[in-house]
Amino acid sequence: MLRPRIIPCLLVHNGGLVKTCRFAEPAYVGDPVNAVRIFNEKEVDELFVADIDASVRGAEPDYSLIANLAAECRMPLAYAGGVRTVEQVERIVALGVEKVAIGAAAIATPEFVTAAAGKVGSQSIAVVADVRKAVDRYEVFTHNGARAARRTAEELAAWAEQAGAGEVIVNNIDRDGMMTGYDLDLVERCRQATGLPITVLGGAASLGDIARLIARFPIIGAAAGSLFVFKGKYRAVLINYPDRTAKTRLMGTGSGKVEPR
Amino acid sequence: MIAIVAYGLGNVQAIANIYRRLNVEARLVSTSEELRAADRIVLPGVGSFDWAMEALARSGLRETLDELVMGERRSVLGICVGMQMMARKSEEGTSAGLGWIDAEVKRLPQADGLMLPHMGWNDVEPRAASPLFEGLDTDARFYFLHSYYFLPNDEGVVIAAADYGKQFACAVQSGNVYGAQFHPEKSHGWGIRLLKNFAEM
């Protein structure tokens, strides 16, 4: 049986790990390679690392950091940040990254997604939809939420499949770091729009939130930042992740009950 | 010594790190001379079929690999696209495969609302005893990331199957040639055990 993927999301800013709230106020939480080592021990399903400086500064991805992370990771790694050419994608995949996530460049130069997938294969290309709710629809933004893409989440998700990508990572900006739960309506809309695997990010506060997501969408990537790096109401930095038993319980196949909200 | 074929793609460093921790001598190898010194070979792979075949051709290692694997019967483990490359051909591209196993690579059917690619941790069902799975119990699971699968002409080479819309061969063995569709280097303790088994058998 294919299991849902429970994915810590790490943000890189000025070479260190940070956690943001609504894409702002980055708080330092530690060293990236050290965090990967801890997540190895915790048998994490997959890891998502986003460099939040690269696109905004128009900088090249930090290849030496990516190489160090990929070599350390005993679980699959997805990378996002500043990727806009096929050469960059090839280089990152060759460093041992399983999946390259594309945000701003998917809007600016959509044909690039198709070209990249043609080279490294669809399974290694993910399209990122960072969205905000606007009354009755979800609008996509790029550059850490600064630029409107004039597209809805569903439009981008449907397009990603046509373009040859292999995954859609959908992130509700307004829930980033807020720990108010996943936006299940957003997931439902994307699910209807695409046959690609979806990873959801933004808002998870507890394992109960993940359990509720999985109960409705059994094959899903449940990603979270704050949940896996903070503990308690004062947001003390403590890397944590459900162990095998807790994970089985989350999928509803064990005998245990899901923790209440 | 285990040679990890470094032809420009695949997670060579993660495999090397695992062997280092296991105290198994393994090297990233990019010349024929180094390759010949190996008693076992790991052929990793990430990416599309044609891209991987082209990269292997460019590396200049293909003839030596053919000679060592088919001629001298040295043990080889293909991982993900590295496994698919051992087939004769793939629906994903037009390049000819290595043809070490009589097999074709086909696209997984997108049926019953199943999403493609097949992405994530899946159970693996043993089909035949193989030293590769020594000590791995039935709760072993591995990380998959692919839309194409390995279809051998002879079912007898299948040592493990996985289920995603259909049953498919996720590990094969034909004599000295081994393949795994999943990524053992990205599958925690289960994958480490499998890589250790390959080093010790």
Spatially, the strands of the biggest sheet of chain A line up as 1-4-5-6-7-10-11-12
- Classify the helix fraction of chain B into a percent range: 25-40%
Total helical elements of chain A: 11
| Shape by Cα distribution of chain A | globular
Class of secondary structure makeup of chain B? alpha/beta
Portion of residues in beta strands of chain B equals 25-35%
Mean pLDDT of chain B: 95
Number of helices of chain B: 6
List the chains of the largest interface with their residue counts.
A-B, 39 and 45 residues
User: CATH class of chain B, anyone?
Assistant: Alpha Beta
Brief write-up:
With 261 residues, chain A is an alpha/beta fold.
How would you describe this structure to a colleague?
- The complex is a heterodimer of chains A (261) and B (201).
- Chain A has 11 helices and 14 strands.
- Chain A is of the alpha/beta class.
- Chain A has a single domain, classed as Aldolase class I (TIM Barrel, Alpha-Beta Barrel), CATH 3.20.20.70.
- In chain A, helix 1 packs parallel to helix 3 (63-72) and helix 7 runs parallel beside helix 8 (184-193).
- The longest helix of chain A is centred in the middle third of the chain and has 11 residues, at 153-163.
- The two termini of chain A are 27 Å apart.
- Chain B is α/β, with parallel strands linked by helices and 201 residues long.
- Chain B has a single domain (2-200), classed as Class I glutamine amidotransferase (GATase) domain (Rossmann fold).
- Helix content of chain B is 26%, strand content 31%.
- Chain B has helices at residues 12-21, 32-36, 49-59, 62-71, 81-84, 188-200, and strands spanning 2-5, 26-29, 40-43, 75-79, 89-90, 103-107, 118-123, 125-126, 141-146, 148-152, 158-164, 166-174, 177-180.
- An 8-stranded mixed beta sheet of chain B has the order 2-1-3-4-13-12-11-8. Chain B has a 3-stranded mixed beta sheet with strand order 5-6-10, with no helix packed on it.
- In chain B, strand 1, helix 1 and strand 2 form a beta-alpha-beta unit.
- Chain B is globular, with a radius of gyration of 15 Å.
- Chains A and B meet through helix 3 and helix 6 of A and helix 1, strand 7, strand 9 and helix 6 of B.
